């Protein structure tokens, strides 16, 4: 494998107002390497890659691309030079064909006298798809026929072409299932084997250790170190990221999976969509985990339990009564943390204060009026309890890092003193430091006698935290596990796939 | 307490700094705009803008627009818009005139006007949310119905306008106008900032899914803002009717656009949501009327060019406030 430097950054610095996002960062990307980029939320990973891709410009510092000074003004310029990026959220366009999606913005190539030659486009698109060895996808189909995962792969097909030198993959895998990830890894390895470089951002340490050749660790905008394949290990990386020993206290340390007999939430013979006659009981002081692949129906269970989706048959009941809708659920001291943090759980353009008080408003009300002093007191208290990092209680939530956003969606419910918490992938896209804090919070909640339904795609999290784990496949519970020290990923995984 | 404050503000902060200004830009910019409008047009009109007579005119013209703008802030916050306001004003006014002429009582006229406008607003709100229709489309329907009713009724009575025989001059009194503005501003300001009606309207306008998942009764809190709009339209219709003591086929034409331009000038985001402020109504209506009045007084434009100027202001503000394109590829 040749090891030429494709891209070199020297002393890149970037600030946003009072926040320093990047401090004097210098890295070199070589051809044929898969470079992992890791750091806590807000450590500057995305800022660095967005500067390389041309989404924003650095305040100071230089970049050299193939030996020449390089300063892209936009993503288009970056892409023209051979630097492509796939993002977590931006996706494909529905209702048009796969081929049209692949050549979006490049239709001119097939246009003669203003008319697009569809056949030729499809042919070329198919050959591009085939070259990535994902031939299950047909270029002539409408994109709607393909699921989320295939679409993500198509995004890669779209941005990567012969001229591509560097592909940046920014936290794409958080949204993918196990199979989707495997396919993506395969693609990444293939791209690297062709002498291109891949910059891979992820929060999943195991994934990075498995896929990457070199790992660059960032902390608070500064480069902390670079690890070669043989130097990488979970404990070293974690320590470098956080800057202190994370210690053993990551997951729960006890293996006493006991809980109260009292049932706090039950789903009885619930039928909704593909979910049929589903039963579930959650007890006081219990952490019940639900695991499975993303299409197993586990996310539906959370939504139904909180009254967002109404079952066609069957009932959802808490101790206080039937859960008919989310409003009733909240009255019964239930809480729901959606897996879609940015679209469902938070009002991004709202402030920290507006978000934190939202579910509490009816309870702060006196004679129809809501006292701003009470509001502020509640917000300050939650900011302090959860150590949310914010400049001001009026700061916009979309200016916060992912971990702090998630703390706010937790804080909303801890402020309400909710007794039954339904959490759907609560640690998705959150760094180790915040993760640890959340696990401790969940453990404290259990000790306080609260009931927690933890829906998660991360097996280690389920094994580490839950008293009982229900593994779902094809909208049914396939197997139930009781907390024990011997339980491992491999025991569980066979029931998932 | 001090300790907590420090935790929240790790950045050294004096009471006014760049970030505070940035955060309140949607309030500060319109205020600067209003001051500039007053200063520049005050000079070009050679002080005529601030003559006692003209100030009375400004207040008279601003009153109905300001009152409705205050109500409209609630529905704009939802991300909704209403273009039936002008014809509903005419409709409410017409029914008020007819009732007053029959009963001879001003109070019955005000009551019937408010009843009509509130009913229409509630219907628009309720249909929009329960049938998931765009509120502006539902309001188009009532724009046509309202205008139709006025034309039909005035034709039946004979002539193009209907005159009232009851004395409505109280509504032309400047002190009364100022008093009404202040009282309504305070009441609606409190409702908007310190009750669930205002807070939930903003939440629904920003993210309806999130609002639902956080226990907001979306139907109830979508319709309540319409109730408030209806009440303000009812009150405004009496002020509109008082200027000529009559309602004609063209009464209120284009009123909804005046509201829209005023709110935009006041810094109201057209998409609604969390950045909405009730102050937009107050600053915006004064900016709009003073701008219109000042341009006419300074002889920059003539009366028949007003609509063109309105359109110009509209385009400029929309271009200035629309979100900057990001550098992200599709």
Description:
By secondary structure, chain A is α/β, with parallel strands linked by helices. Chain A folds into two domains: 238 residues, P-loop containing nucleotide triphosphate hydrolases (Rossmann fold), CATH 3.40.50; 234 residues, P-loop containing nucleotide triphosphate hydrolases (Rossmann fold, 3-Layer(aba) Sandwich), CATH 3.40.50.300. In chain A, strands 6-9-10-3-11-12 form a six-stranded mixed sheet, sandwiched between helices. A six-stranded mixed sheet of chain A has the order 18-21-22-15-23-24, sandwiched between helices. In chain A, strand 13 and strand 14 form a beta hairpin. Chain A is globular, with a radius of gyration of 24 Å. Chain B is mainly alpha-helical. Chain B contains 14 helices and two strands. Chain B is globular. Chain B starts with a helix and ends in a 9-residue tail after the last helix. Classes of the chains: A alpha/beta (497), B mainly alpha (330). Chains A and B meet through helix 2, helix 10, helix 11, strand 20 and helix 14 of A and helix 1, helix 2, helix 9 and helix 10 of B.
Number of strands of chain B: 2
Give the neighbour order of strands across the main sheet of chain A.
Answer: 6-9-10-3-11-12
CATH class of the largest domain in chain A: Alpha Beta
State the CATH architecture of the largest domain in chain A.
3-Layer(aba) Sandwich
Helix and strand sequence of chain B: HHHHHHHEHHHHEHHH
Largest sheet of chain B: 2 strands, antiparallel
Enumerate the spans of chain B where pLDDT stays under 50 for 5 or more consecutive residues.
1-13, 324-330
| Percentage of residues in strands of chain B | under 5%
CATH superfamily of the largest domain in chain A: P-loop containing nucleotide triphosphate hydrolases
């Amino acid at each position: 494998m040749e090891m030429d430097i494709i891209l070199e950054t020297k002393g890149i610095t970037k600030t946003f107002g009072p926040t320093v996002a990047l401090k004097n960062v210098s890295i070199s990307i070589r051809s044929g390497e898969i470079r992992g980029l890791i750091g806590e939320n807000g450590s500057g990973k995305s800022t660095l890659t967005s500067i390389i891709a041309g989404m924003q410009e650095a305040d100071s510092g230089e970049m050299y691309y193939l030996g020449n000074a390089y300063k892209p003004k936009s993503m288009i310029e970056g892409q023209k030079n051979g630097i492509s990026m796939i993002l977590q959220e931006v996706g494909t366009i529905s209702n048009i064909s796969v081929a049209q999606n692949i050549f979006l913005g490049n239709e001119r190539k097939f246009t003669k006298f203003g008319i697009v030659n569809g056949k030729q486009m499809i042919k070329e698109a198919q050959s591009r798809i085939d070259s990535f060895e994902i031939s299950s996808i047909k270029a002539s189909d409408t994109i709607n026929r393909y699921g989320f995962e295939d679409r993500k792969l198509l995004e890669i097909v779209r941005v990567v072409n012969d001229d591509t030198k560097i592909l940046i993959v920014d936290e794409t895998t958080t949204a993918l299932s196990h199979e989707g990830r495997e396919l993506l890894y395969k693609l990444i390895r293939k791209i690297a084997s062709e002498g291109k470089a891949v910059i891979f951002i992820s929060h999943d340490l195991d994934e990075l250790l498995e896929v990457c050749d070199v790992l660059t660790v960032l902390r608070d905008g500064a480069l902390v170190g670079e690890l070669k394949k043989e130097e990488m290990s979970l404990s070293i990386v974690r320590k470098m990221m956080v800057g202190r020993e994370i210690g053993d206290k990551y997951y729960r340390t006890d293996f006493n999976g006991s809980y109260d007999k009292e049932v706090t939430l039950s789903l009885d013979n619930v039928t909704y969509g593909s979910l049929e006659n589903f039963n579930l009981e959650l007890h006081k002081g219990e952490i019940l985990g639900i695991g499975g692949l993303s299409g197993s129906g586990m996310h539906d269970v959370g939504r139904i339990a909180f009254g967002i989706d109404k079952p066609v048959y069957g009932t959802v009941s808490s101790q206080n009564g039937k859960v008919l809708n989310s409003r009733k659920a909240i009255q019964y001291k239930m809480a729901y943390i959606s897996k879609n943090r940015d679209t469902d759980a938070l009002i991004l353009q709202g402030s920290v204060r507006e978000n934190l008080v939202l579910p509490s408003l009816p309870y702060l009300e006196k004679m129809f009026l809501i006292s701003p002093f009470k509001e502020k007191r509640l917000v300050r208290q939650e900011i302090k309890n959860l150590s949310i990092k914010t400049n001001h209680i009026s700061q916009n939530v979309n200016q916060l890092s992912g971990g702090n956003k998630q703390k706010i969606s937790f804080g909303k419910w801890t402020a309400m003193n909710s007794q039954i918490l339904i959490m759907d992938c609560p640690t998705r896209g959150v760094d180790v430091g915040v993760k640890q804090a959340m696990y401790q919070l969940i453990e404290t909640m259990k000790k306080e006698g609260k009931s927690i339904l933890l829906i998660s795609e991360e097996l280690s999290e389920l094994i580490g935290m839950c008293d009982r784990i229900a593994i779902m496949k094809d909208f049914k519970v396939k197997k139930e596990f009781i907390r024990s020290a011997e339980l491992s990923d491999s025991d569980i995984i066979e029931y998932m796939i | 307490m001090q300790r907590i404050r420090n935790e929240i503000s790790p950045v050294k902060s004096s009471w006014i700094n760049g970030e505070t200004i940035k955060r309140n830009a949607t309030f500060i910019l319109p205020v600067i705009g209003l001051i500039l409008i007053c200063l520049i047009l005050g000079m070009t009109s050679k002080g005529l803008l601030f003559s006692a007579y003209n100030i009375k005119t400004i207040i008279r013209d601003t009153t109905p627009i300001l009152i409705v703008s205050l109500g409209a802030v609630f529905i704009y916050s939802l991300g909704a818009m209403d273009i039936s306001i002008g014809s509903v004003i005419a409709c409410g006014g017409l029914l008020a005139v007819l009732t007053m002429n029959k009963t001879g009582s001003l109070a019955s006229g005000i009551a019937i006007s408010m009843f009509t406008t509130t009913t229409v607003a509630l219907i628009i709100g309720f249909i929009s949310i329960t049938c998931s229709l765009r509120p502006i489309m539902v309001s188009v329907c009532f724009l046509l119905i309202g205008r139709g009713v006025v034309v039909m009724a005035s034709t039946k009575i004979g002539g193009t306008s209907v005159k009232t025989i009851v004395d409505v001059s109280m509504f032309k009194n400047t002190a009364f106008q100022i008093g009404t503005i202040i009282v309504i501003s305070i009441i609606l300001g409190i409702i908007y900032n310190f009750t669930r009606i205002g807070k939930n309207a903003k939440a629904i306008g920003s993210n309806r899914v999130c609002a639902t998942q956080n226990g907001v009764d979306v139907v109830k809190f979508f319709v309540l803002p319409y109730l408030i709009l209806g009440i303000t339209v009812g009150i405004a219709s009496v002020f509109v009717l008082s200027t000529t003591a009559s309602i004609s086929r063209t009464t209120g034409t284009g009123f909804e656009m005046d509201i829209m331009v005023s709110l935009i000038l006041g810094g109201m985001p057209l998409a609604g949501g969390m950045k909405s402020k009730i102050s937009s109504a107050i600053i915006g209506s004064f900016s709009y009327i003073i701008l219109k009045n000042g341009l006419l007084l300074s002889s920059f434009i003539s009366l028949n060019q007003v609509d063109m100027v309105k359109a110009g202001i509209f385009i400029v503000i929309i271009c200035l406030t629309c979100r900057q394109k990001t550098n992200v590829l599709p």
